[in-house]
What does this fold into?
Amino acid sequence: MTDDGLEPGAAPAFVPHTAEDTRAMLAAIGVEKLADLYSEIPPELLGPDLSALPEGLGEMDVLRLAHERLHRSEPLLFLGAGAYDHHVPAAVWEITTRGEFYTAYTPYQAEASQGTLQVIYEFQSMMAALTGLEVSNASLYDGASALAEAALMALRLGGAAAGAAPARVLVPALLHPSYREVLRTVLDPQGIEIVSYPWDPARGTHPAAGLEEALSVTSARAVVVPQPNFLGQIEDVHALTAAARAGGARVIALVNPLGLAVLEPPGHWAGEGADIACGEAQPLGLPLSAGGPYAGFLTCRREFVRHLPGRLVGRTLDRDGRVGYTLTLQAREQHIRRAKATSNVCTNQGLAVTAVTIHTALLGAEGLRRTAAVAHARTRALLEALTGIAGVEAPWTGPFLYETVVRFPRPARAVLAGLHARGILGGLDLAPHLPELGPGACLVCATERRTPEDIVRYRDALADVLGAPPS
Amino acid sequence: MIPLVFELGRPGRRARLQAPAEDPALDDLPPALLRREAPALAEVSELDAVRHYTRLSQRNYAIDTHFYPLGSCTMKYNPRASNRAALLPEFLALHPLAPEEDLRGYLTCLLELEEMLAVVTGMRRVVLNCMAGAQGEFAGVSIIRAYHRARGDEERREMLVPDAAHGTNPASAVMAGFRVREIPTRPDGDVDLEALARALGPHTAGIMLTNPSTLGVFERRIVELARLVHEAGGLLYYDGANLNAILGQVRPGDMGFDVLHLNLHKTFSTPHGGGGPGAAALGVHERLLPFLPHPFVVDDPKEGPRWSRPEDAPRSIGRLASFHGNAGVLLRAWVYARLLGREGLRSVGPYATLNANYLAVRLRALGYELAYPTRRAGHEFLVTLRREAKTYGVTAMDVAKRLLDHGVHAPTTYFPLLVPECLLIEPTETESQETLDAFVEAMAAIRREMAEDPERLRGAPWTTPVRRLDDVRAARVLDLAWRSGGASSA
Ligand SMILES: Cc1ncc(COP(=O)(O)O)c(C=O)c1O
It folds into this structure.
């Protein structure tokens, strides 16, 4: 076989054709060579130089290479910042990666996809229940892209301030920096302005008065209310929601879905509730996995369903009156509405959604509540242990969910490097993001997976790095 | 019917070993912010859940169980080795914000994949931070916008899109702030170059093109088309969803494209997972390098592979992901690329094309009408059932549903919208001749049924867990979520 891939030799890799098969098929088509199949392509375009590509490898060799590359000693994680190290039941990914889920396409042929469709319907139900809103879509790429879609959606809703008001979205000053960047990338081309409302450095949260004022100055049509905020602090979401509503803006809740096992759901904020809730489903069964695949979720009140971006599954009946599931309200989507669609999203995070659904089913309300409560207790214990070291302080005393800020007496960057050398990922250096907190500020997180012994290890390592005896 | 997970189990039942045994008080949180009522979720044992989701999985058709000739979707075999690598515990435990020294091995894989993709696409540089095709399109056309802006060319606000294009193309262009103008397709399947020439002007930002197109044919005058667009000051965007047809044989960069995305969940065999996750590789020509979305991998001569920092990308269109994209998908694509290597990648296009042309010829011999009979098929082809619709009163939908009874996933139906009663059939290179022959047999049986028992066709499917579903009711009654207490409708 010559190496242009065009001789009917024994075909490589996953191509099953024997030389005999290839010849017979070419004969059926009425051509002699594989190359003849490219007769409509301008000849000068054919046969590029691929000599820079490596030779193929067997499975054994590729997996060995993967092992070699990915092997490392695993540090103890006290780092969150939008991606959290929670326990994922063994059953979750064993079932999720069954070929029937793993290798199916988007469920356009409903009768051949009832498994995937029912999973998505259950996912929608779970996200609706957790957020206290009525409708959920079938997922978006991740938390940041869900927030961007939520902002676009909120502006489509119009509302009291719509019409005259310029397209502006108010976001909390303490918004995950990457989420802010993604918002800008998506909203900029449509001429939508992003304005921050202020936080109170004495408390680590956003006072409602600051939001009110920002709203009156900008007349923004949508406000993002986080729970918790980027620094893990719990916000007075009732006051913020009420302020946003009073200013005539739509309310977008940006929430940690695990936190909603213990915290008031957006659907109940300030009584009336938020209009839209969104966030990152990663804490519900998705491994850290270097940043993805995760899954963004987006829920809303029922009256806004026609403005939702992304796929939706509905329950209906078949010809014999049996219950079944199908994609619905597709007229919102790009494959029908094209340039006028609510979004360009097509492929979303299906398999991750399957994992989230199985995870959430296995944990249930009680399991999620305990997970969140234990993570919270661990983070409290961590804060107590670390601030027991001379010079280490907590800028605020809470309340927080399961992530908060400590201030080291030395630049966090150097301290974190010292901790890393001792096998600990000690948190996120906040200096590049919030210089006003000082060079020592560090965002720390302890999930339910961190034991009291892990916390002692962190404390001892920190004392060692700082050269201070643990008190 | 399988009950919903919420309808299984009993109040108070749970998988006790999956959550902490401890139950610490939340006494330091303000009561007004605490949840008053537990969310209505499942209350099941571990076995209840495992059995439920295993049984649900069995209600799917999938590549692992069925031939899946779904046009435009490239449903080829998804190697298990890819999944093995992506589920290595060390990888799953990797925090996206971990220090770069912990990420080097992974970043090395990404660099290797980027380089291989740059070679097969003929682009100067490929980055891997887009999470699906549509996001790759958005990034690509945003780059076109940034390019024109950087040159002070603010007037170029119109994006040309052929009428056969996938719906994400116009939708992405609009999200990136463009007006969209459709360009007609000629009866032979090529873009109407005369109409294109008339549409071009100082307002033209560029054109988004799929080649082979969604009609399954190669744009024969692509070189001329590219010249026309470039001469008018526009750029060419390549929607790489159909690269499988020409992988290893023809490169979009050589055709004249300036920027492209590839769907790794198609051409590079990462699983489609019932609707994702995907990942798109974004490739650019030299002059578009400054605008790439960040963060991307930098091959730092001193530090080794690392993530780009703001100073590496001062003119970037910005960030698209919370972190760095769908890492687990990218690792799977890397495994696929390394398994195939040069020889394997070179053979993908020819064998995908062989299988498609073989099926096209066999179906035509049965009496099925090809939408573009004078054309060579790419990796997929269109059958139109407009004659059958008239003669027998059966539709493309009927045939699609009947195929399910024959143990085959249906081809794509009613896309592209240009061709009436169409089936878009894409067998991919990993299917054997026997499988294709079995599909031909099924299509022959269906053809006989059109004449002999069209009711049987119109009633299909008969053997699936449910029969044809009432879409109208689904949209009218809108039952989108289960609610406790039985009242289910959102
Ligand atoms: C031709 C074409 N373009 C673009 C897309 C969009 O890709 P994605 O679904 O990954 O967003 C698809 C597939 O869905 C496609 O077939």
